[in-house]
Amino acid sequence: MIPEVRELLIRERAPFEVISPRLAPASASHQACRQLARVVIVRDRDWYAMTVLPAAARLDLGQLRRRTRRYDLFVTEDAEIRGQIPDCPTATMPPFGRVFGLPVYLDRAFAEETAIVFESGTDREAVTMPMGEYVRVERPAIVPLVRAA
User: Fold this and answer.
1) How far apart are CA 134 and CA 8, in angstroms?
2) Which of 36, 43, 135, 147 could form a disulfide with 58 if both were Cys (CB 3.0 to 4.6 A apart)?
3) CA 47, CA 34: separation in Å to the nearest integer?
4) pLDDT tens by residue, 40-86
5) From CA 42, how far away is CA 51, in angstroms rounded?
6) Could you give the C-alpha distances from 3 to 11, 52, 88, 104, 138, in angstroms and in order?
């Protein structure tokens, strides 16, 4: 786990568990898959934000544009955010925007899960913690983010 996230969780006295090796959707149980988070970074000119949704879900960018009133939002590529978020590729990014100076939007339905499983910022491990604790520590905006099937 990257030190900034570990320090944040310890400082906030949030319970968490490091899972080794890294949890991949293909090897996870059904319950763990439902709780597995995916981080998607979006951008509108020089404004960036982090979205957190279930790993198997698709981001409803139109919904987020309306919620944020940023109508030029688009999903960033890793190369676009390297200067903004150094040393942490999107694929391993933990869902703690406050560590990176980004506002966070958490999918409303996903926020109802009992736990969240997320990447640790490294390619070696994942982390799990109660969803309520994640929300308490990160204080994300909880909004609908997932495109209906």
Assistant:
1) 11
2) 147
3) 30
4) 999 998 899 999 999 989 999 999 999 999 989 999 877 666 666 65
5) 7
6) 12, 20, 12, 20, 16
Q: Give the residue from 85, 93, 97, 90 showing the smallest Cα distance to 119.
A: 93
Q: What is the pLDDT of residues 99-116, one digit of tens each?
A: 989 999 999 999 999 999
Contact assessment for residue 108 and residue 126, using Cβ atoms and an 8 Å cutoff = no
Contact partners, residue 128, CB within 8 Å, separation at least 6 = 16, 17, 19, 35, 115, 116, 117, 118
Q: pLDDT (tens digit, 9 = 90+) per residue, 115-134?
A: 999 998 887 889 999 999 99
What global pTM score does this model have? 0.87
Coil/strand/helix, residue 75: strand
> Is 22 buried (19+), middle (13-18) or exposed (0-12) by CB count in 10 A?
middle
**Which amino acid would we find at residue 3?**
P
The position carrying tokens 């609908």 is 144
